[in-house]
Design brief:
Two copies of one chain form a homodimer. The first copy, chain A, is an alpha+beta fold. Chain A folds into two domains: 134 residues, 2-Layer Sandwich (60s Ribosomal Protein L30, Chain: A), CATH 3.30.1330; 145 residues, PurM-like C-terminal domain (Phosphoribosyl-aminoimidazole Synthetase, Chain A, domain 2, Alpha-Beta Complex). Chain A contains eleven helices and twelve strands. In chain A, the strands form three sheets. In chain A, strands 8-10-7-11-9-12 form a six-stranded mixed beta sheet, with helices on both faces. In chain A, α1 runs parallel beside α3. Chain A is globular. The two termini of chain A are 27 Å apart. Chains A and B meet through α1, β2, β3, α2 and β4 of A and α1, β2, β3, α2 and β4 of B. β3 of chain A pairs antiparallel with β2 of chain B, so a sheet runs across the interface. Chains A, B: It catalyses: thiamine phosphate + ATP = thiamine diphosphate + ADP. Chains A, B: Its EC number is 2.7.4.16. Chains A, B: Belongs to the thiamine-monophosphate kinase family.
Chain lengths: 325, 325
């Protein structure tokens, strides 16, 4: 970085990129201009810090870039919106190798494209730690935003996407196990690049949608707890519906608890929603519990024993799984 | 931070805040929803890193928060757009005192309000350095964006706002001079909280606007250089029009060069624009040069001797003023 400088690296990052149709004016001016055909836009921002949210010895720059976009795109989709564009501020040490930066950029662009958008602009500054700050935008297409507050007693709780596999991948990486073992491949891949099932939400056009929706970023119980609090309801999760024999096999080989990964792991960026009773769930969704009157989240009718998920600064207090996110 | 944890501090930061009218859904869900009445929105993002863009022993948390918003709002206004909302991702060490965070938040909110918007959401994570990543949004009100590429030979170059005072403040702080000296008060205040003259652009309704516009963030010559390159023109700046006797007095007392602060200092976040010849400049704007055929930026017809402004990672190469931004 020190040799090329900010402007040359920015040129390198942006060379040959094609902006999504929503990006009316891309990088190179004081600001970008993005289409908001709906007259509103949805926005979410997340910061990823080296050593805390990712490690360069555990993931490639491309994987880190993809993960940074995926977790933000999942927030946009969790509002029922279609991702349109992203901006990315990047802080990095002066001795960062340029291929790290171009790899990150490639990952950012790959996942932005997968989510339906592009990287419309950014900032590149000098910092001691590698820090990636992504802001994501989406369009609601004239529909109401699907918030966390619409769940009603009697609704079915359903999930789209995998749960626990990212936590399993982190456990594998932390364990010193043989990373080349085929049994660990899916867990490692999921931890390195979560694959939010965008289509499970975005293809709902014409179907009956969820009454409330969130992405599972902090942990299933934690995120359902936020949803329950916002909606003024209680949620009970059925552990049998969450069982995953393949994940259980990984857990056994590490002497770990798959149920804890499923209930308190979060970085898979699955979607959790509530649906009016009697709704036939659309493709990709599976029932995992019910909404009742009251407050809080229970598992099979009882208070969860382990932690419920991730909270920054207090990580160790709430994540007995040892997640470092 | 460690004692309260992420969620309690977020509650503390957001308590009692009133969102601007453009913010349709504020913090607390997966994402925020912002009005874009124009069917487009303008977006800019900047990252500020402790020790590089600010120092807690040189500025209060409130001042740092204000500066973080001001420099982003200036980018929005420099497109001819009216700021509507901001999102802020904050990384901070676990031993950060909570009043630092609440002070930052107060500063963010104060300047957001001054610029016409509010803080619609954010992220709070654990990092080794204090890092503030602001993304700003604006609405063009049906007008075309004013880019850097519209300058034409024969246009007048004009500036709104002060130049060099932020660089002077940094020089005062770096010099070990008596910070309480009244002669330094304005320089220090400007460095700590730049005051972009938003109204000089936003009140142009009905007036003939600039053909090209930018904010002065990297340094006057550097930013005019970007504008000249984007427009395919040359810019000549008249040093006599930039002279500032008050700033010269500060420079003399530090044995520094006021002209260099004016030409290569940037963080005042003044606005520089080009106007068709014969336009009567609106209030707040003063002519400082002319646009010609060719390329590059000259001062009184000759190549500038000193540096032209700031570039991350290569700071020392291009800023003989010793700016640490």
């Amino acid at each position: 970085m020190r040799e090329l400088g900010e402007f040359a690296v920015i040129d390198l990052i942006n060379a040959g990129r094609e902006q999504a149709a929503h990006v009316l004016l891309g990088p190179g001016d004081d600001a970008a201009v993005i289409a908001a055909p709906d007259g509103r836009f949805v926005v979410s921002t997340d910061m990823l810090v080296e050593g805390r949210h990712f490690r360069l010895d555990w993931s490639s720059p491309v994987e880190i870039g993809r993960k940074a976009i995926a977790q933000n795109a999942a927030d946009i989709v969790a509002m029922g919106a279609r991702p349109t564009a992203f901006v990315v501020a990047l802080g990095c040490p002066a001795d960062t190798a340029v291929p790290v930066i171009t790899g990150l950029a490639d990952g950012l662009w790959t996942e932005a494209s997968r989510a339906g958008g592009s990287v419309a602009g950014g900032d590149l500054v000098h910092s001691e730690q590698l820090v990636i700050s992504v802001t994501a935008f989406g369009d609601l297409g004239g529909q109401a935003a699907v918030t966390r507050s619409g769940a009603r007693a009697g609704d079915v709780v359903a999930v789209a996407g995998e749960l626990g596999w990212s936590a399993a991948g982190l456990a594998v990486l932390s364990s010193g196990a043989d990373l080349s073992a085929p049994a660990f491949a899916h867990a490692l891949a999921t931890h390195r690049v979560p694959r939010p099932p965008y289509a499970a939400v975005l293809d709902l056009t014409g179907e009956v949608g969820p009454t409330a929706l969130t992405d599972v970023s902090d942990g299933l119980l934690a995120d359902l707890g936020h949803l329950a609090a916002a909606s003024g309801v209680a949620v009970d999760v059925h552990s049998a519906a969450l069982a995953d024999p393949d994940l259980a096999a990984v857990a056994r080989s590490l002497d770990a608890d798959a149920a804890q990964w499923i209930l308190a792991g979060g970085e898979d960026h699955a979607f959790a929603g509530t649906w009016a009773a009697g709704t036939s769930l659309p493709p990709g969704w599976r029932p995992i519990g019910v909404v009742g009157a009251g407050s809080g989240v229970t598992v099979d009718g009882t208070e969860p024993a382990g932690g419920t998920g991730w909270e920054s600064f207090r990580g160790a207090d709430v994540t007995p799984t040892g997640r470092k996110r």
